[in-house]
Specification:
There is one protein chain. With about 250 residues, the chain is of the alpha+beta class. It has three helices and 16 strands. It has helices spanning about 1-15, 35-40, 230-250, and strands at about 45, 65-70, 75-80, 90-95, 100-105, 115-120, 125-130, 130-135, 145-150, 150-155, 170, 180, 185-190, 195-200, 215-220, 220-225. A seven-stranded antiparallel sheet has the order 8-7-6-3-15-14-11, with no helix packed on it. It has a four-stranded antiparallel sheet with strand order 5-4-9-10, with no helix packed on it. Helix 1 runs antiparallel to helix 3. The chain is globular, with a radius of gyration of 19 Å.
């Protein structure tokens, strides 16, 4: 029984949300709302009361590093809010999983809440934004997200590229809450949609307030592509469960 419980915990932990409170700022004021207030403010049913806990319900760091488009029409990105002091220069985009120095910008500093863009990647790796060829090719349909400037990425969704600092948390829809972003029509926050929230100062630095409200983007028609180590851990856990069940039956 002990073995069964241990391997079950391993399997679940490979996919579960982070146990530590990465998003730590709970202080709130009108000019600098915390993440829970932002999620509550997006929720119109139940009104003002998100069922997602901003301090625990985000994907584990090993799961949200890389992504893939899972729709033939591309992925829609919507800028939710930007509160950072350097909002005018912050940019948001995607980078090639296998060549992080290759990137494509989706939002620039002047863009504001409600701004939308469409990302699509063709079979040959060519990257299109708003149905226009960017002239940039990725190795395939796997990419990370970045927060940066007009010169390119500063922080990456893969924390290993940030010296181990996790600068982004991803919240997944639950097919329950109805949310509304700016003047766009409200809709059910489905499990095919994610809200990405960024911290724009190095997480481990004393300057970081660890509130992850500096730039927030809603992404739909994407799925996370876990890193190989995470998949291996999950496989180990599932294999252990099978072995434990066979021993119990014996």
């Amino acid at each position: 029984m002990k073995l069964k419980l241990i391997v079950a915990a391993v399997a679940v932990s490979a996919w579960a949300t982070s146990a530590s409170a990465l998003v730590s700022t709970t202080s709130d004021d009108p000019g600098n709302p915390n993440m829970q207030s932002i999620l509550d403010g997006l929720t119109v049913d139940p009104i003002g009361n998100s069922s997602v806990d901003a301090y625990s319900d985000y994907l584990d760091d090993g799961v949200d590093s890389y992504w893939a488009i899972n729709s033939t029409g591309g992925s829609v990105s919507t800028l939710v809010v930007e509160i950072a002091g350097n909002a005018d220069i912050n940019t948001f985009g995607v980078y090639d999983r296998y060549s992080p120095e290759t990137w494509v910008e989706l939002f620039s500093g002047p863009d504001s809440t409600g701004k939308q863009n469409i990302l699509s990647i063709k079979a040959d790796g060519s990257v299109y934004v708003a149905f226009a060829d960017t002239g940039i090719d990725f190795a395939g349909n796997e990419f990370g997200f970045y927060l940066g400037t007009s010169d390119g990425p500063t922080f990456y969704s893969d924390s290993l590229l940030n010296g181990g600092n996790d600068q982004m948390v991803a919240y997944q829809g639950n097919d329950s809450d109805v949310i509304q972003i700016a003047d766009n029509a409200p809709g059910v926050w489905s499990d095919n949609e994610f809200i990405l929230a960024w911290e724009d100062l190095l997480y481990s630095s004393e300057a970081s307030d660890q509130d992850f409200n500096d730039l927030i983007v809603s992404i739909e028609s994407v799925i996370p592509v876990p890193e190989p180590g995470t998949l291996a851990l999950l496989g180990l856990g599932l294999a252990g469960l099978g072995a434990a069940r066979r021993r119990q039956k014996a």
